[in-house]
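Example record for the data management plan.
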Amino acid sequence: MTAIFPINKNDSWPAPMRAGFAALSARDRLSVYNCRAARLGLEEISMQTGLSHGQVIIGHIGNRAKSDFSVIGPVLTAARKAAELCGRANAFMPVTDQNFMTAARDYLLFKPFQNEKAGGSDDNAADHFNICGFANLAYFCERLKSGSSERALISVIQAFGLTGTAEGFGFLKKFIEDPDCSYRREAVKALSPFMALQNADIKEYLRNLVINSKEPEIRSTAISILGLARDQQTGSFFASLFTDSDDRVRANAVEAFITLDIPDKSEHLKKLVYDSAPRVCANALLGLWLADDQQTLSCLYDLLKSDNSGKRSSAAFAVYFLAAARKFRRLFPGYSEQPGLVTLSIIENIFLRLKQMLESEENSERYQALRAIGRVADIECRELITSLLQDETDPEIINLAHSILSDWEKKAGTQSELPRERFNA
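Corresponding structural encoding:
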């Protein structure tokens, strides 16, 4: 992927600063993505980032029949060379060449690049540098005072965290502890880069924030950020929150807990399967599934055939949630990668229960069951959804049903022929 940051004198952020922010921000977002992927049993990915500075040629290449917007020039070659140096040895910190460093030295902090695999020296790495932060945090403080847009202010707050420095944390701490600040939650989220650095002081700060804050939204966000560290020593702390009165706190604590290798992990999670909050229940079942606990499917089926409508809704939500993990989704015929493979009887029973829930008088049951079916079924179940639409009156469920049908038909390469009058009404 190639990104171009044009120089414009009227921009509030100079182009080199925008490029540096984008590189550091992308690295942080990828760290967050990888943590979520681990919670779903999906593959984690890495990204090499290289930056250079100079003139390029941009425009459309081709003819009227086929043309592509393209960028060419030696600057792209230099950026690719820098990206090739970026890797695990430097914790995937963005790498720049001398040209970029010269253009951005007033805005960004750099350190000489060292290739650890080459014993600290490499001729190919000469005149290359790692971006390690921002040169002047006072600039961002001024941006906060200038009355910028909400999006710009959030970017400024993120920049303090991307520095990974005590100074940057000091600014964020002021925002978090100011009860009148409208961006306290954003400031907590901006601490995520410190988790990639395994900063012990920030971990302790987040832990205390969870314990001492009176606001569930701040506490739950702090738990999510602390979970990004994937620190085994936080396991007992997260487990202590499983009985918290707020369901957001419990759900996020379970979410952070399931990526850790903790003794008696399954026993902890089994106690939460019947929690009244759907997210807590779903996270607990996901944790059991990832731990290869043999009772996961039977627990899920027991919830689906419960006499309690709330538990049935939670179980349907859990199916929808679990289906984000490919290993679980492949159990259903619509997503099996081996045609003709015999479907497990318990999977058939789970799907049958979901279909029965579509006839429930409770809107929440029908809605959650429909979401689950949309995730694990395919176009062959079109008649099932069409039948639901004939009598459905809830606008949210009607909207969801049409969205599911549309998605199935796109995947099947067909065009929807369903009447849209009820949907538009």
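Summary line stored alongside the record: The chain has 22 helices and six strands.
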